[in-house]
Amino acid sequence: MKVGMNMLLWTDKPNPSEHYDLLSKIKQWGFDGVELAADNMDPADAKAFAVALDELGLGRTTIAALDATVADPASRDPALRLAAVKTLKLAIDNTSSLGADLLCGPLFQGLGRFTGKGPMADEWGFAVETLREAGEYAATLGVKIALEPINRFEMYLVNTLDAGVRFVKEVGLDNVGLLADTHHGNIEENHVAEAWRQAAEHIFHVHISENNRGVPGSGHAVGPEIFDALKDNGYDGWLTIEAFSQAVPGLISRLHLWRDYAAHTDDAARLGVQYIRKHIS
């Protein structure tokens, strides 16, 4: 297994020159790679990042999310579904330009939209069709898509891995699977490790994220049973830390980050990688 670090701990606008020193630190802390937001990245930056990451010997994955007011795969509005396809294709292009082969994120629907009830059959169908189109395009570039079920406070279409499995089976593409996230599983699954075992064949990517979004191992969402389930099922992909801080103002209200969860912003990375290495060695 490889250990990655999501750059959203420090920035939601990564820049290849401005953040080169940070990338170098991430390498020194013992990470195998980084995760970058690909949906709002300038294509030129994607190519520059690829050069920088190659120089540092860092692998890479990408992440994307959709604003429901702008782009929504599950919307009844064809314009919003079309915008979702356009945004996803940009993210896929940037993923390829970065030299990455996996794009992940809560891409079932646009975020921030709730109807006051659960998913309707037509919404589910629209989302399946939209992600199938994106997945078919991704396949032409050798890119896999890992769809992330997230908690009920952020999304209503797909909250559990079981629902995610049903969704990707309907999409029906070999390059479209799931992202399993410890934070969201901690909220939605009755037994997180068992849910991961049941969905194992569809899990393409893993996010290690504490219950409070802070330092992995400091809370109760990332216990040893998580790593045991992955090892037992032969998982050999990325374990990417997804932690957040108040260092990124644009994420504070979106993710309800009302306080700091560590003495220093870097702790989630610096201490988190040590915790993960201890459990996978």
TrEMBL record:
It comes from the Bacteria. Residues 24-258 form the Xylose isomerase-like TIM barrel domain. The keyword Lipid metabolism does not apply. Gene3D superfamilies: Divalent-metal-dependent TIM barrel enzymes. Keywords: Isomerase. GO terms for molecular function: isomerase activity. The keyword Nucleotide-binding does not apply. PANTHER family: HYDROXYPYRUVATE ISOMERASE (PTHR12110). This is Sugar phosphate isomerase/epimerase family protein.
